[in-house]
From TrEMBL:
Cited Pfam families: Arabinose_bd, HTH_18
UniProt KW keywords: DNA-binding, Transcription, Transcription regulation
Phylogenetic lineage: Bacteria, Bacillati, Actinomycetota, Actinomycetes, Propionibacteriales
Residues annotated as domain HTH araC/xylS-type: 236-334
Protein name per its UniProtKB record: AraC-like DNA-binding protein
A single MF term (Gene Ontology): DNA-binding transcription factor activity
Organism per entry: Nocardioides zeae
Gene Ontology terms: cellular component: cytosol
Length: 347
């Protein structure tokens, strides 16, 4: 069982409501908390999310529901990954970044740029999977979302040559062709859905790239990647949950356990088996986020304190002394001169 950020369901509630459905009732029916539909950073079971889409599509008589929801989403759905993607030098770099760090958004999905399934010269394939018969609304939504992101990064149509789906269409074929503006092949061989792209598209340079913003975003994403050989599956999920909760919600173990859909004692045992504790992970995440904010932005110290989950600035000062044997101002003063202002980060 894997987990995804609830941001992947952004637009679901609005689309369902437009068609007279009750999104909260559908969420409860598949075991999801209804409030997950109103937030971006709740961790939800991927299987439950897929079942939610199928249930709603059937109940509403909207077999193109996944395609419709994708139209309501944009690149910001990807959270911190969106910053790294938008500030990649080329579209190929953006796709490579997506392939490497997509697990932060959806731990059970993979996206990679590979060969053309038809073997045509000068054509590449963006392989999205796994995909197959059964719960297809999620794939319909996800692949159409990927198409929309590429269109956005390219600044308009990018020359999509065709789409290959390894399953029968849930909706009328015309709905798929309207969504992509290209021919769509159904029941294609393989286990991935594929966007067929011009190979030269990978070299397309993106506009408005800020190398410093990309470096900060990549550092943030890399911090969520388990070290090779450490296992750390539960630890990695806890780090991600804590990082998203800092400054916005409780970082108590009971609250994080609810996000991960496990009992807090079970979570404690799993962390102990990986040689760590919840408190140690919270401290590790706080330390990393504090250093990133101190050395990478010019945010006021009071705001940095709040963003890493401290009630008062004095708590940040004590922690900084323990972590680095230095005051927060000294840590900031010793940083490289390419700090980015918060206004730049927001823009």
């Amino acid at each position: 069982m894997g987990y995804i950020r609830s941001a992947a369901l952004r637009g679901f509630a609005d689309e369902v409501t437009v068609h007279g459905g009750d999104p909260a009732a559908y969420a409860r029916a598949v075991g999801l908390r209804p409030d997950a539909l109103l937030a971006d950073d709740v961790l939800v079971r991927d299987e439950a999310a897929a079942q939610l889409l199928e249930l709603a599509a059937h109940a509403l008589g909207r077999p193109d529901l996944g395609l419709r929801i994708a139209r309501r989403q944009d690149i910001t759905t990807l959270g911190s990954l969106a910053v790294a993607i938008q500030h990649s030098p080329t579209l190929g770099d953006a796709l490579d970044c997506t392939s490497r760090y997509l697990f932060v958004h959806n731990g059970s999905l993979s996206v990679r740029l590979g060969g053309d399934p038809q073997g045509e010269r000068g054509v590449a394939g963006l392989h999205y999977g796994p995909a197959g018969e059964g719960l297809v609304q999620g794939t319909d939504m996800g692949l159409a979302f990927a198409h929309g992101v590429i269109t956005y990064l390219h600044g308009g149509p990018y020359g999509l040559l065709g789409v290959e789906l390894p399953y029968r269409p849930a909706a009328e074929p015309a709905a798929y062709e309207a969504a992509y503006g290209a021919p769509v092949t159904f029941e294609a061989p393989g286990t991935a859905a594929v966007l067929r792209l011009p190979q030269a598209l990978a070299g397309h340079r993106l506009a408005g790239v800020n190398a410093t913003l990309r470096r900060l975003a990549l550092a943030h994403l890399a911090a969520q990647t388990p070290l090779p050989g450490t296992g750390g599956g539960t630890s990695a999920r806890v780090r991600a949950a804590v990082r998203e909760s800092l400054g916005t919600g409780s970082v108590e173990i009971a609250a994080v356990a609810r996000l991960l859909a496990v009992h807090h004692r079970t979570l404690q045992r799993r962390l102990e088996a990986e040689g760590t504790t919840f408190g140690a992970l919270v401290d590790e995440v706080r330390r990393g986020e504090a250093r990133r904010l101190l050395t990478g932005t010019d945010l006021p110290l009071a705001q940095v304190s709040a963003m890493v989950g401290f009630a008062e600035q004095s708590a940040l000062s004590r922690a900084a002394r323990r972590w680095w044997d230095a005051a927060p101002r000294a840590v900031r003063a010793g940083a490289a001169p390419d700090r980015v202002s918060w206004g730049t980060l927001e823009g």
